[in-house]
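Human: I'm a chemist; would you kindly supply sequence and structure tokens for a protein?

Assistant:
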Amino acid sequence: MAELTVAYLMALARNIPLMTASMKAGKWEKKSFLGSEVSGKTLGLIGSGRIGSAVADRAIALDMTVVAFDPYVTELPNITLMELNELLSKADYISLHVPHTDETHNILDEAAFAKVKPGVRIINCSRGGTIDEDALYQAIQDGKVAGAALDVFADEPLADSKLFSLDQVIGSPHIGAGTIEAKARVGEVAAQKVIETLKG
């Protein structure tokens, strides 16, 4: 999931899906897709557990500044912890890495989007229900949010969403952990549990 998050970050920064669609349509719109560098930008993590920390490591390697909101953590190496409102106002990219609970339900809602840094890009490869999708749609329409990359949704499987009527939104069908290597690791863990059970 960390790698998908970083892939989405780069895709949003360089408009890769839109450029690909343009090329497939037979166009050569070199001046229409001015991207931005992630180096020197600030990544805000909502949640800094195992996956969030892995994302942070990769972002730091890309010369990004990483800040995080996590009420259950007091200190993190190479990451500045801050309150959510401060993170919203400072981050160029916001990536969610939290479970869906009563506490995190729609943690990014209309009120939160009103506080974000203009032009922020949102990435969610954690859990659906942590973003108010209607509020995100409106924030993109209003120009507050420059783009979003979503692997998870409040209702899955996703039958329809007005978010995907927007060119600034890219997505995938909840495949953050869907890699050959991840599936192999799951098989290895299952096999080890069987062996341990048989050994008594």
